[in-house]
Amino acid sequence: MSRTIAHVVGARPNFMKAAPVVDALAALGAEQVLIHTGQHYDEKMSDIFFRDLGIPEPDVNLGVGSGSHATQTAALMTGLETTILERSPAVLVVYGDINSTLAAALVCSKLGVPLVHVEAGLRSFDMTMPEEINRRVTDVLTDLLLVTSPEAYAHLANEGCAVDQIRFVGNPMIDTLLRTRDRFDGAPVRAANGLPDRIAVSTLHRPANVDDPAVAQQIIDALRQVAKTIDVVVPLHPRGRQRLADLGLVSGDGLHIIDPLGYVEFLSLVADADLVITDSGGVQEETTILDVPCLTVRPNTERPITISHGTNRLVTPAELAEVAEAVLGGRVSFPAERPPLWDGRAGERCATAIVELVDDLVSRG
Ligand code: UD1
Ligand code: UDP
Questions:
Q1: Closest residue by CA, ligand 2 atom 6
Q2: Is 307 helix (H, G, I), strand (E, B) or coil?
């Protein structure tokens, strides 16, 4: 029987989660195949992370690209089915909550290939988010649920998952941050982008924020207001870029709209920032470890531990400017206790659990 461990990655936040797992499995001598779906394909949304993080070149790139949810998911499933049949892996590992994760889970379950989900059990309980649908469907189809946060146990148990399929491994995205941290150097990145020493960093890409012109306008107005107090740099995700520009998200008066940055450059800016304003999942976690105040422009988060153990706080677009002023004025304090097992060893724990699963499958024939 095959002992090959296949990984499916597709979009920016997958790469920093997969890197330490792939590394730790390589250290154990595992046979691996890396499948990139091509959901993200711009150099600055994909290739740059493979170089920055030393991830091996993908063995396969399906080149699926963009489309509506149905078009993209169908193309992902078709491409993945062919590749999985060709490669016959023992298990397949998926990451996070993107459409590539969901498509791989559906294909594996139909082909009878055991599935491992890294970052299982996170829930926003907001079914208007495409990611929440992806998380729920993926987890119900998963054989080994690797969780980053203790509350995931209850979420998964409530949905009928067996507790003996769950392992609390910690957060591999934080492994990547801790390993890369000594390469963070804000000054040259600020200089290259014409930024002063004191900055706020903002990222925006959630459909609820950037696809709805009324909400986007409120957020842009708030960022313009914050930029009167501190320069705000926005490395802008490609989603809705032109629409946001038309609504006034353009450089000037302390606002700096730039292309997405590579991992080391981006976190070099964040690590030194006075404030982060975001709707990203991963950035909520990274600011928790970097101890940088984070305002998340969302009504909910699937990562509540970044609020109870970190620097994160949820804000509405309407209150964003006022809360940002309060944080910059030092009038808001945050608990800063590192979440359990966000210790740089999650990749190793994932690898151990995955190899145990493969051993078990091989011994059962
Ligand atoms: C996807 C994930 C989201 C994740 C985000 C991380 C889903 C449903 N959403 O959202 O969970 O937080 O990635 O960044 O899987 N585009 C480019 N170049 C690229 C990629 C995308 O220009 O390399 C543009 C295209 O116009 C595309 C749009 O961005 O239509 C959206 O891309 P898509 O991958 O569908 O979703 P994201 O919004 O990036
Ligand atoms: N990130 C990056 N460059 C940027 C913006 C974000 O390297 O210009 C990194 C960020 O540090 C984190 C990841 O991208 O590791 C988060 O991805 P994203 O916000 O696209 O997705 P989400 O986490 O919301 O799913």
A1: 266
A2: helix
What is the spatial order of strands in the sheet that 275-278 belongs to? 255-258, 231-235, 199-203, 275-278, 294-296, 312-314
What is the dotted CATH code of the domain comprising 181-328? 3.40.50.2000
Find the 357 Cα to ligand 1 centroid distance in Å: 32
Q: Which listed residue (205, 237, 256, 309) is catalytic?
A: 205
Torsion angle, alpha carbons of 342, 236, 72, 137, to 10: 30
CATH superfamily of the 5-171+343-363 domain? Glycogen Phosphorylase B; (3.40.50.2000)
Q: 52, 37 in Cβ contact below 8 A?
A: no
Question: Among 167, 169, 230, 238, which Cα is nearest to 201's?
Answer: 230
Nearest-5° angle of CA 328, CA 332, CA 337? 115
| Tens digits of residue pLDDT in 120-163 | 999 999 999 999 999 999 999 999 999 999 999 999 999 999 99
